[in-house]
Design brief:
Blueprint (H helix, E strand, L loop, with lengths): L8 H4 L2 H4 L6 H11 L3 E5 L5 H8 L5 E6 L2 H7 L6 E4 L11 E6 L10 H14 E12 L15 E4 L5 E10 L5 E9 L7 E8 L3 H10 L2 E7 L13 E8 L1
Parallel strand pairs: 1-2, 1-4, 2-3, 4-5
Antiparallel strand pairs: 5-11, 6-7, 7-8, 8-9, 10-11
């Protein structure tokens, strides 16, 4: 899980500006689950915004963020009352300690290879309590979200210090039925050069996802197609899954 956008120091500081809480349906969806769990592991926690929000909302239990990008964790560590761990699921060695494991921001799609998926899902099961839950989302392939990842759809933000930065996506390796690679180019009138971040994502359909979960000893408890809890359909943009021990 190291091939992620915003993982470089110059970009990590921009993440929350480009992905603000109020525009994220995933945070609104997952926060009630986090608040009702005593011990939470946020895998691919990034800048830690979800756990920051939970603590600010009054969560008094254990909150732990895991991320392979030091630059992201540097941002997350603005709060010291949360555990921040550098690493990924392959290095996780907790023993059934969390009653909720969550992956937000489509971090699940960074698990590209079959072996990565199997190892990571096995690790999720090993860190969950027997009555715990694993909540995450992956983009639904038939929705073809990548068709909107074009320079024409670039977005621009103004940071707290007044810096204006533009982010433009472009598909680099088209969807082959399994993966897709793309670039995100960040530019600003105040920068000498642009920053380019490359990422490859895995796109699992609902049936394939179910098989991977089952092989890892996990069972689907609920699935939704969007953040308003609509049922999963072929045309849904998301495959939002809540899984338990199977």
């Amino acid at each position: 899980m190291v091939d992620r956008l915003f993982s470089e120091p110059a970009l990590a500081v921009l993440y929350d500006a480009f992905c603000p809480w109020e525009e994220r349906g995933d945070f609104s969806f997952y926060l009630p689950m986090v608040m009702s769990a005593e011990a939470v592991l946020d895998v691919g926690c990034g800048t830690g915004a979800l756990l920051h929000g939970a603590r600010q909302a009054g969560h008094t239990g254990r909150l732990c963020g895991l991320d392979p990008a030091e630059a992201m964790l540097d941002q997350a560590r603005r709060r010291s009352d949360i555990e921040w761990i550098l690493g990924d699921l392959a290095s996780a060695d907790w023993d059934h300690e969390f009653d909720l494991v969550v992956m937000t921001g489509h971090a699940f799609q960074v698990l590209v290879e079959d072996d990565q998926l199997r190892t990571s899902l096995a690790a999720v099961r090993s860190v969950m309590t027997e009555d715990g839950r694993f909540a995450f989302e992956t983009r639904n392939p038939p929705y073809r979200a990548w068709e909107g990842w074009t320079p024409e759809n670039a977005v621009e933000v103004e940071c707290a210090d007044g810096l204006v930065v533009r982010m433009a996506h472009e598909v680099e390796t088209p969807f082959d039925g399994r993966t897709l690679s793309f670039t995100a180019t960040f530019s600003s009138p105040l920068w000498d050069r642009s920053e380019v971040s490359r990422s490859t994502l895995r796109w699992l359909d609902a049936e394939s996802l179910s098989l991977f979960l089952s092989d890892a000893g996990l069972a689907i408890e609920q699935q939704f197609g969007d953040w308003d809890s609509q049922p999963l359909a072929d045309t849904s943009p998301e495959i939002i899954t809540i899984a338990r021990w199977g």
